[in-house]
Amino acid sequence: MYISFKPVNVRFDSDSFHVDLSDGRVIDVPLTRFPRLLRATAEQREQVQISNCGLHWEALDEDISIAGLIAGKGDQTATSKTFAASA
Fold first, then answer.
1. At a CB cut-off of 8 Å and minimum separation 6, what does 21 contact?
2. Looking at the predicted structure, is the pLDDT value of residue 85 above 50?
3. Counting Cβ atoms within 10 Å, is residue 57 exposed (0-12), middle (13-18) or buried (19+)?
């Protein structure tokens, strides 16, 4: 998906993060939608790398696309567990 705007800044408060876009819009996202960010320390959250398409936190193994945020998507990590069958 091609987008004509880019993230330019990320800010955090106690329960949300806010992504400033190059077209002047701000995306406000509850931290509860991204469990890794919710559990992270303030210092870990601040280590975000901003690219043209999204946000990346190396130490948290978290990647968030701007297109996904605009579409209202939260954490897309598969949480299902696989259990070995007992013999």
1. 5, 6, 7, 8, 27, 66
2. no
3. buried
CATH 2.30.42.10 fits 7-70, yes or no: no
Q: What is the pTM of this model?
A: 0.80
So where are the chain's domains?
7-70
Question: Which residues sit opposite 21 in a β-bridge?
Answer: 7
Distances in whole angstroms, Cα of residue 3 to Cα of each of 14, 21, 45, 60, 77: 29, 11, 25, 26, 23
On the question of pLDDT at 79 being above 60, the answer is no
In degrees rounded to 5, what are phi and psi of residue 54? Answer: 180, -160
- Which residue type sits at 59? A
Strand partners, 1: none
